[in-house]
Design a protein that fits this description.
Gfo/Idh/MocA_oxidoreduct, 9-stranded mixed sheet, Gfo/Idh/MocA family oxidoreductase, NAD(P)-bd_dom_sf, 14 strands, Rossmann fold, binds nicotinamide-adenine-dinucleotide, 12 helices, nucleotide binding, Dihydrodipicolinate Reductase, domain 2
């Protein structure tokens, strides 16, 4: 596989998610960081890009300059990652797709369902790839969970329990801190805070491992801290199209919880449990049997898990390696398109613009439901309703 040129928008110095992308994209040597508009401040962005080894003529002051500069090059970037604040994702992603670039967009993909529908349509018209960074679906043992469900080890899936509950916004005295306040400001974040920020990761995992999509949902939102207009805690019940139900809890006020992401799947033949803070172990209990700990890197896992593992059994792999699996999938799919061959089918499980759209529909549905006393609402995007 020839090395691919990669660019980043956002993810500047001091950003939360930028470093994880750079570690992940660089891990397997598939991508070379060739261009960037890394910061909202052009001078800071250029200076940091050069510090990271980007050539001065590809260290851009803003994304529009980058689009123009890269469009005119023979060695233009093969993939651009959009890691800017949420309200900018739609405009940047659409512009790059329309100009023939593949995009990996941070979540949430857009601010509205309509924008998300438009991105899906733009992807279709462009023939380009648009992935959305539900990076936790890149963990080897999450992929193994999905493989076990798909090959029937659990039988029919009855229930999925999904959580993303942390405690980092629990201090009422700190609620006015500007670094936290914007996250609960509808003008900057849209109609949902915690569900849109974290809940959709948990829901994506539930959909990913069960192989079933959300059909309808009922949501209960609270603002545990009075000064907040948007929710900092939500409980959501979701009915899936294959007949299973998701019980989803997301919170920012769960004091003592750290990242707090996990998923359990209960089927007629057994149950699986996985927690992101211990991602190398998967707990499997067959009905009537004892619990077995499946270790990442063991020789008898699925091809999906094998492909997503790098270091040997007993050595921890963590979040940047999960994101690296999304990048490895994209490298395979982009390279296959360039070489005119069919990609490895195991690389096709990266999250797509359709997943981004489903999330936006779920957010709107949850907001409507929560404001209507938990009434069941259609969770599907308009374009995906039978
Ligand atoms: P952040 O505020 O820490 O960093 C944002 C970066 O983008 C900064 O460097 C800023 O200067 C830059 N920026 C802002 N506007 C820009 C513009 N117009 N052009 C170029 N650069 C610009 O934010 P963050 O926490 O890193 O979040 C960024 C995105 O990543 C958000 O959409 C967030 O939801 C998402 N995120 C995803 C995950 C995940 O697990 N997938 C985790 C954290 C954040």
């Amino acid at each position: 596989m020839a090395r691919l040129n990669w660019g980043m928008i956002g993810g500047g110095e001091g950003s939360q998610i930028g470093p994880a992308h750079r570690i992940s994209a660089g891990l397997d040597g598939h991508f070379h960081l060739a261009a960037g508009a890394l910061d909202v401040d052009p001078a800071r962005g250029k200076a940091y890009a050069e510090k990271l080894g980007i050539a001065p003529d590809r260290a851009y002051g803003n994304w529009r300059e980058m689009l123009e500069g890269e469009s005119g090059r023979d060695d233009r970037i093969d993939l651009v990652t959009v890691a800017t604040p949420n309200s900018t994702h739609y405009e940047i992603t659409k512009a790059f797709l329309e100009n023939g670039f593949n995009v990996l967009c941070e979540k949430p993909m857009t601010m509205t369902v309509e924008e998300a529908e438009d991105i899906v349509e733009t992807v279709r018209n462009s023939g380009k790839i648009c992935a959305v960074n539900y990076g936790y679906s890149g963990y080897a043992m999450v992929r193994h969970m999905r493989a076990m469900v798909a090959r029937g080890d659990l039988g029919k899936v009855r229930l999925v329990k999904a959580e993303f509950a942390h405690g980092f916004h629990a201090d009422a005295a700190d609620a006015d801190n500007p670094r936290i306040r914007w996250r609960y400001d509808p003008a900057q974040i849209g109609p949902s805070a915690q569900f849109a920020d974290c809940g959709i990761h948990a829901l994506h995992l539930a959909n990913f491992v069960s192989g079933q999509e959300s059909q309808s949902l009922s949501a209960d939102f609270i603002s545990a801290i009075d000064s907040r207009t948007l929710e900092d805690d939500a409980m959501v019940n979701v009915r899936l199209d294959g007949g299973a139900v998701v019980r989803l809890w997301t919170s920012a006020v769960a004091v003592g919880r750290m990242h707090g992401l996990g998923v359990q799947v209960f089927g007629e033949k057994g149950g699986l449990r996985w927690e992101q803070e211990h991602p190398n172990q998967l707990y499997w209990t067959p009905v009537g049997g004892r619990t077995e700990i499946l270790e990442r890197g063991a020789p008898d896992l699925s091809p999906e898990a094998d492909r997503a593992s790098r270091v040997t059994i007993g050595h921890a792999e963590g979040m940047p390696l999960a994101f690296a699996n999304i990048y490895a999938d994209l490298a395979e799919v982009i390279s296959a398109a360039k070489e005119g061959r069919t990609p490895d089918p195991v690389a096709m499980s990266y999250p797509t613009a359709e997943d981004g759209l489903r999330s936006m529909a779920a957010i709107r549905s949850a907001v409507d439901s929560a404001s209507g006393n938990g009434a069941w609402t259609d969770a599907r995007p308009p374009s995906m309703r039978g």
